[in-house]
Design brief:
single chain; about 325 residues; mainly alpha; 3-stranded antiparallel beta sheet; 3 strands; about 5% strand; elongated
Amino acid sequence: MTLSLALDKFFNDRATYCKEVTSQNYRVWLARFVDYMEWMKNAEAALIEMEEITREDIKAYNVYLRERYAFDAHPTNPVSSRKISKTSVRTYMVAVRALYTFLYKEGFLETNPMQGYRMIRKEKHEQEVLTAAEVRRIDNSFDLREEIGLRNWLIVHLMLDAGLRRGEVSRLQVQDIDLRKNIIYVRGAKGDKDRMVLLPAGIREKLCRYHSDRTAGEGALLLCRGGRPLTQDTIKNLFNRLKHATGIERLHPHLLRHTFATSFIYYGGQAYDLMFFLGHSSLGTTQGYVNLSAACRLLRLEIYKIDEVFFQR
């Protein structure tokens, strides 16, 4: 079986159960593997037999990845002076492992050269949170008299005060907001799981203002200019602008979710409740926020406090 045929079978298999974005990510991650093997074997993927790619070739590819510089294959960003992270190297290698595991289990390969392969560990970064003063700086950058200003405020606070992920915010529909029960329904979240989150009063008030001149009922909750549904790229671009406007260089969408989770524990919430609101499948993932909250308390940091609705009994 050739490398190109093996990839076709793998992508077709993933398309049967993976989300479209996950399938697309596999294509991106494995494209670099293909480029390397074509260069190494001096042949096109359609002419490279899978049996010709040895475990030593895969190790050489792993070393090649570790020597690459960040953004060296990015279509717009300039090449960085730092090498790509261990986490990125691991991501590329996990995709290769998934390819070989599929081929072996389906009987397309007699042996799996990735079996028992030692993967590089991810970096462990200290999680950070936003202070109350930093959130005020972010909020002050929005003109709430304008529709775009309201929308941008909502993007930020749906992550900050409700713990949503970037993709979850972009996928929200009008019908996902229950104003009668004060609940946000998060559908098709990570792992294709649905969950419910309480609707904070501040978000409710801004949503009513944002939708005051729109017909409620169904459709995308938040819109781009021109009435198109909000995209993840729009959110990414918003945060790039916010970094410059606020001077908070570490600002990124997931930092808001970290802040929500840490604030929840810091101000009296319970770990099991947080596990429910975040959509975690195990308490072990949530435990990291318990530890971070304890560290913030020892350092007496003025962490941003999320809406009181999460502390009412």
